[in-house]
Amino acid sequence: MFSAVSLASLLAVTAVEATFPSPWNLPTTYPNLTACTSLPVQYSCENTTVLTNSCCNVVKGGLVLQTQFWDTYTGLEDEGQLLPKGSWGIHGLWPDNCDGSYDQYCDLSRQYDRDPPSPIPPYTGPSVRTFIEAFERWDLLEYMDTFWINQGAPNADFWGHEFSKHATCTSTFDVACYEPGYKEHQDVVNFYETVTKVFQMYPTYNMLAAAGILPSNTTTYTLAQITNALYSQTGAVPYLGCSGNGTVLDEVWYFHHVLGTEQYGHFKTLNSTTASSCSATGVWYYERTPTSERVVTY
Ligand SMILES: *[C@@H]1O[C@H](CO)[C@@H](O)[C@H](O)[C@H]1NC(C)=O
Ligand SMILES: *[C@@H]1O[C@H](CO)[C@@H](O)[C@H](O)[C@H]1NC(C)=O
Ligand SMILES: *[C@@H]1O[C@H](CO)[C@@H](O)[C@H](O)[C@H]1NC(C)=O
Ligand SMILES: *[C@@H]1O[C@H](CO)[C@@H](O)[C@H](O)[C@H]1NC(C)=O
Ligand SMILES: *[C@@H]1O[C@H](CO)[C@@H](O)[C@H](O)[C@H]1NC(C)=O
After folding, report:
1. Which CATH superfamily groups domain 32-294?
2. What domain of life is recorded for the organism (predicted)?
């Protein structure tokens, strides 16, 4: 029979062990939000008073877009860069301003884009992959290499671009939000965790498939069929993007206002503020090249 004393000593040993470095005691990636606990909570772009702490609320870029794309190939199949079967790919998490305009590359001290628009200097340092490795976030890296797939260049180039172009314009990922004790690239890893979390709210492939809309190289769909399928599951109309003069579906953007931080706050889905670029009828949702896909578990 266990006595209260032996249970207490067991707990004491556990507490002591937890202070030693171990695979279960990795550096944390979360911001310091202690100052937020005394503030009122309001949705971004809907606040009736000034949001005073930009680490506690999405003050810059409060119209938040979770963006995904549908590619049929990667161009780097030979190197094993394959698309996830039965899933759209992650594009990013974009901070639009409340009026639908947007800023980009807001902090050039965190410029990790190897191919930015002029006059921004290209990044030439180590891959952002090494930033995630430094935090030993193998789980996150594996997820990103499964669902966040680039076309024509390595995945990590895409990840670096998304962080520097977009996340630097979202106030809750500012370096100041991780002080004191900021660990280099903590904000980058925390952003990637956030992107993968919000992406999982929108299994676009499954939502469409559940309404009978599957990739096909023989049948086209109407824009209304696709829109209704997603509206009936999310309660809002996302933006649908088409290439080929409106005939080839390849993008979806889900719009939100966020309560609290982008990292942990509540995402309220909203109708798109941008008209679809797809034609009303004759929209192709192409099957992928079979050798460009791999089976994934999720
Ligand atoms: C978080 O920041 C506050 C100041 O806002 C500071 O007092 C506190 O010690 C910090 N917490 C940690 C864990 O660093
Ligand atoms: C909402 O918060 C933003 C950021 O602090 C501020 O610029 C804006 O004036 C606020 N809106 C209202 C109605 O107070
Ligand atoms: C694109 O589509 C529009 C409207 O359907 C049509 O008027 C136009 O000719 C098309 N342009 C091309 C280059 O196919
Ligand atoms: C969103 O769009 C749908 C479909 O067009 C419409 O019925 C609904 O009223 C819109 N919701 C809001 C809040 O505007
Ligand atoms: C379907 O068509 C797309 C676009 O032409 C092509 O890339 C893809 O390989 C095709 N898939 C199959 C299974 O035929």
Report:
1. Ribonuclease T2-like (3.90.730.10)
2. Eukaryota
Q: Which residues of the chain have pLDDT under 70?
A: 1-25, 298
Query: How remote is the CA of residue 148 from the centroid of ligand 5, in Å?
Result: 21
Ligand nearest to the CA of 285: 5
How does 29-58 read in b/e, with b if 16+ C-beta sit within 10 Å? bebebeebeeeeeebbbebeeebeeebbbb
Domain ranges within the chain, ordered by starting residue: 32-294
Residue entry with tokens 């069929």: 225
pLDDT in tens, 1-43: 344 444 444 444 443 434 444 456 678 999 999 999 999 989 9
Query: In testing the pocket of ligand 5, which one of 71, 72, 83 has its CB within 8 Å of the most ligand atoms?
Result: 72
Residue 235 zone, left/alpha/beta (φ > 0; ψ -120 to 50; rest): left
Residue 161 catalytic? Answer: no
Q: What is the pLDDT of residue 23?
A: 55
Closest CA to 151 of 82, 248, 94: 82
* CA atoms in the 13 A half-sphere facing the CB of 216: 11
Pairwise CA distance, residues 188 & 266, whole Å: 20
CA dihedral of 261, 264, 268, 269, whole degrees rounded to 10 = 110
Cα separations in angstroms, 40 against 37, 47, 171, 174, 259: 8, 10, 17, 20, 10
